[in-house]
Design brief:
The complex is a heterotrimer of chains A (283), B (325) and C (394). With 325 residues, chain B is an all-alpha fold. Chain B is built from 17 helices and no strands.
């Protein structure tokens, strides 16, 4: 046995040692490079801002706020200025199929059981505005016998237990300490699992950037003391925004003075957009 | 243990070690600091530049406009809704002034199913006949300032005073000729307003000015009350000097204020039904020429040709002054 | 300006963001491929672990098949991702609450396992080739030997233990690899069509029948190409396996659908409308009637009558093809079907499959067929034939 495999053994031994040496060199080089390049990475990770320092900006401390949003559907006139403003403010794709916020119209026609629901992606409404880049509701029911009709603005609910955050495989989407669900666009891989998971249809994939996107409650505005764009432009005050920690904020008063409800409470997501004046078939 | 097993185990061990250590080096900066995400993403998002500037930004340069806007009924509509986002303005040039106001304003003000009744809404076709909204409405303070003056005068005293007016305007407020207007049944608030305007000099007319200046405020109230209470029947129409059908089409543009058949919806504005044809034509020409001053009428009369004026005058003159409601 | 996205037509009421289909045909191809991987491995395990001796002729081919398809498994995902270059984010910082984060681990573990098991299975062959050959391939085999030419009984005993251990570990690994996909769908509460506790199990059992059917077809085809007679006992063994697992798969799928109907939750009206409308043919006719019930009945008949010879070969091959088709339809009906039913429960969308494009039909077909090319290469490098003189020890 020994004589038989002496020749290949010697050869093989040399071969193996050579391979091992090569592998060791590579590994050593890799570790060395990583050590050089990686030490800053590793140490930067552990280096957090000093405790007590304001995060995320020096003028805004996220531990001091808990944002909330209110929608008064009894006031909405369906003018869609909010949709327009959001697209402008947040560089949302200018088409009629991807929205951070949108408005739905519910119409009950006399004698019909099923409610008619339409929104900005409806071809009739796209025709009324003339293009996919402008938004308008077509006055399609003006000759119908309408029993009841109303508008409902919709947006991301920034749930307390968001299942979009749960299903993100990388950790690109997350909930901040001030209650806003955000997306890290440099980290998202564009798998669209979060888009599938959201029960409210609030998310979409930004094709140009290859990442998921959704309403951020204009985080870049609210951290500067401004209102979200949609709240700013609403001419009738159908959208309300504020800090739930502040008992006198618009949203705290809105919740306290009204009977509010949320969409799909059965999901267990605990949404933070509170509705007044919606109806049984609004989902 | 056979050689190949040992080497295999070594290989596997090597791979496992790399697999455990590699994430430490490959994980991006600031991950895991607050949770399972890259903490630095938060300030990155917070640092984005707001695009909408809000009216506070416009106020510094457009002070007067801003003041007018914030005192008017559009104060809940921010500037950028109509003019576009102000980021980069004025460095990047002017912001657009909307041209197609009929398309823009109707976004909110078209009467639509589902709109709450508290929202001012119009049936577009019947309201302006396709005209631009800015013909009548100031977009920065759009409510039409028809302050309805309260008229509470004494009709009997007015009747007494009206003796001075009868020569031109007729005994019973029905004018004897085509040039001077009927007053019978006219809206009291309008009469009071126009008399006051003649008196103060806001409105100038070679005949009316000295007469109005001789009136006291009480007289104006009394006269307005008296004439408003008179019957407008008997305003026989002269031969029409214009095309009634054409006039009817044109009158759609006037319906919002003057009513479909010339019976005004708001008592601050004059009834035109069964008014003298010649007077109406002259008045429109005067508005057009700027001799008679009214910003609203100036706007609407600007586009009227002489034929249009004749048609309109003929149409209104031919209408019944009784409301058909 | 031409839109860069395709949006889907719809009826009823759907959320505006739903008009763009996010998961395309490639996301139906992906579980199909992992299913074939898991199923093929099951055949190998039936021989290695459970001692189904009659499956010896296909045991090694099953391993190679499993490996070939496994190599191609990440491709539909990479083509689908918005940022494929960041794909490793989910492995470097896996979000453990997400089923999808498991992919990187299951996949790499499983590839390693397959390579290892194949290596052990073929070691004597590799050693022999390393010693015999002097060309480039020879260097390849020598590299694979890891420098050891020990094929003594002592070494073989270790090898056999390793093969057995790997085959045993491989079963839950394969089930994890494919089962997590089912769990990804079944655990979502946003879509009634997906949300089911049974989903991972359904995926697994349909995966098994697809993999076994694939092996049956490949075995018959390879015999024909090599002009050798088909080992009928082996083929019958495969047929029994398909037959048994079809029954379970049918029961599970039937139960799942029955549950949806019976529970009658909100949105069930739309599901019924969908299933009796646009999905009638793909679901009831193609997936069930043609693709599952027909082969089940036919196999039952052949088993009952003890069919053998040419009739058996033809029958099993056709049944296997039908099953392969049915399992693809199942993936399609779940992935695409689930997205065609709106989250609102009040509307239906319709998916348009483009022919060209990164996520089109051609790419889907290519990705499904390409592993067979790789398999061909592998069978040349590592002949799996039980009858060949140079065959590796089992």
């Amino acid at each position: 046995m020994k004589k038989e495999d002496s020749k290949p053994t010697l050869e093989a031994r040399r071969g193996f040692l050579a391979k091992l040496a090569g592998a060791a060199t590579c590994a050593g080089a890799a570790v060395g490079a990583a050590a050089l390049g990686g030490i800053p990475t590793v140490s930067a990770k552990t280096e957090a801002p000093p405790d007590g320092a304001s995060f995320p900006t020096k003028d805004y401390d996220w531990t001091k706020h808990q944002w909330g949003f209110g929608v008064d559907a009894t006031k909405c006139i369906g003018c869609l200025r909010c949709v327009e403003a959001c697209k402008t403010e947040n560089d949302v794709p200018r088409n009629a199929h991807q929205f951070r916020t949108w408005v739905e119209r519910y119409v009950h026609i006399e004698g019909e059981e099923e409610v008619h629901i339409d929104s900005q992606q409806d071809p009739v409404n796209i025709n009324a505005s003339g293009s996919e880049k402008e938004f308008r509701f077509a006055n399609r029911y003006k000759d119908a016998k309408v029993d009841k009709a109303f508008f409902v603005p919709k947006l991301c609910n920034h749930c307390t237990h968001p299942n979009c955050v749960q299903v993100c495989p990388t950790g690109a989407t997350y909930r901040t300490k001030d209650g806003v669900v955000l997306i890290d666009k440099t980290y998202c891989i564009g798998c669209r699992y979060c888009v599938q998971a959201c029960p409210y249809g609030a998310r979409y994939l930004d094709e140009e950037r290859g990442v998921a996107d959704k309403c951020t409650w204009c985080y870049h505005r609210i951290t500067k003391g401004l209102q979200p764009a949609c709240v700013e432009v609403c001419p009738v005050g159908a959208r309300v925004f504020g800090d739930q920690k502040d008992k006198q904020s618009p949203i705290s008063l809105f919740i306290r003075n009204n009977r509010v409800q949320v969409l799909r409470p059965d999901t267990g997501n605990a949404p933070n957009v509170f509705y007044v004046g919606i109806d049984k078939e609004v989902i | 243990m056979p050689k190949h097993i040992i080497r295999l185990l070594a290989l596997i061990l090597g791979v496992v070690v790399v697999a455990i250590i590699a994430p430490q080096f490959l994980t991006v900066d600031s991950f895991y600091r607050f949770g399972h995400y890259r903490a630095n993403s938060v300030p990155e998002i917070a640092a984005l530049e707001p695009v909408l500037q809000t009216p506070a930004y416009c106020k510094d340069c457009h002070t007067e406009r801003h003041a007018q806007w914030s005192a008017g009924s559009h104060k809940s509509v921010i500037c950028e809704v109509c003019h576009g986002a102000a980021l980069g303005h004025p460095q990047n040039g002017k912001l657009p002034i909307p041209k197609d106001t009929a398309k823009l304003c109707t976004l909110c003000h078209e009467a639509m199913t589902g709109r709450p009744r508290t929202q001012p809404q119009i049936q577009v076709a019947q309201h302006s006949g396709g005209q631009q909204c800015t013909v009548c409405h100031n977009p920065h303070s759009p409510k039409i300032a028809a302050a309805v003056a309260k008229v509470a005068g004494n009709a009997a005293a007015g009747k007494q005073k009206s003796a001075d007016c009868a020569a031109c305007h007729g005994e019973a407020g029905i004018s004897p000729n085509d040039t001077w207007p009927n007053l019978a049944g006219q809206n009291a608030a309008y009469l009071a307003r126009i008399l006051a305007a003649y008196k103060s000099g806001d409105q100038k007319d070679v005949a009316m000015t000295p007469l109005a200046q001789a009136l006291g405020n009480a007289d104006i109230q009394n006269l307005a009350t008296y004439y408003a209470g008179l019957s407008c029947k008997g305003a026989a129409g002269e031969k029409a000097a214009g095309n009634l059908a054409a006039g009817k089409v044109l009158a759609k543009n006037c319906a919002a204020c003057h009513g479909e058949t010339g019976i005004a919806s708001n008592p601050a504005w004059p009834k035109l039904a069964a008014q003298k044809q010649g007077y109406l034509a002259n008045a429109l020409k005067a508005f057009k020429a700027g001799l008679r001053k009214d910003p609203m009428m100036a706007g609407v009369s600007r586009g009227l040709s002489d034929t249009d004026i004749a048609d309109l005058a003929a149409f209104y003159a031919a209408q019944s002054c009784q409301s058909t409601k | 300006m031409e839109s860069i996205i395709n949006f889907a037509p719809y009826t009823g009421w759907v959320y505006p963001n739903e008009t763009v289909f996010e998961w395309s045909v490639l996301i139906a191809v992906y579980p199909y491929l992992t299913g074939l991987v898991a199923g093929a491995f099951t055949v190998s395990s039936l021989y290695q672990v459970f001692g189904f001796e009659r499956l010896k002729p296909v045991a090694h081919m099953a391993l190679l098949t499993s490996l070939s398809f496994m190599i191609f498994v990440p491709t539909p995902l990479l083509l689908h991702l918005g940022h494929p270059e960041r794909a490793f984010n989910s492995t470097i910082t896996p979000h453990l609450t997400s089923a999808m984060a498991m992919f990187g681990f299951f996949a790499s573990f499983y590839v390693a396992l397959l390579i290892l098991e194949g290596w052990f299975a073929y070691r004597p062959f590799i050693v022999q080739q390393a010693q015999k050959r002097t060309d480039l391939l020879g260097r390849f085999y020598r590299l694979l030997t890891l420098g050891s030419y020990d094929v003594s009984e002592h070494a073989m005993r270790y090898d056999r233990k390793w093969i057995f251990a790997l085959a045993v570990i491989g079963i839950p690994a394969a089930h994890g690899l494919h089962g997590y996909v089912g769990f990804m769908y079944g655990s979502l509460k946003s879509r009634e069509w997906w949300s089911s506790d049974l989903m991972p199990v359904i995926f697994l059992f349909s995966a098994i029948i697809s993999g076994v059917s694939l092996l049956a077809v490949l075995y018959v085809v390879s015999c024909k190409l090599r002009k050798i007679p088909v080992d009928l006992a082996c083929l019958k063994g495969l047929a029994y396996t398909i037959w048994a697992f079809i029954m379970v798969a049918l029961v599970l799928e039937g139960l799942e659908f029955a549950n949806i109907v019976y529970k009658g939750r909100e949105g069930v009206d739309m599901i019924m409308q969908y299933v009796t409308g646009p999905l009638l043919i793909p679901y009831f006719i193609l997936q069930f009637a043609v693709g599952a019930i027909t082969p089940f009945l036919w196999l039952s008949y052949m088993i009952w009558r003890g069919t053998t010879g040419r009739a058996l070969v033809i029958g099993v091959t056709v049944c296997a093809c039908l099953v392969l088709f049915s399992v693809f339809m199942m993936r399609w009906n779940v992935v695409i079907g689930g997205q065609e039913i709106s989250k609102t429960g009040k509307g239906l969308l319709s998916y348009h499959l483009p022919l060209f494009g990164k996520e089109g039909a051609l790419v889907a077909i290519l990705l499904t067929v390409a592993p067979l090319g790789l398999l061909y290469v592998l069978t040349r490098l590592f002949p799996p034939w039980a009858d060949a003189a140079t065959h590796a020890h089992s």
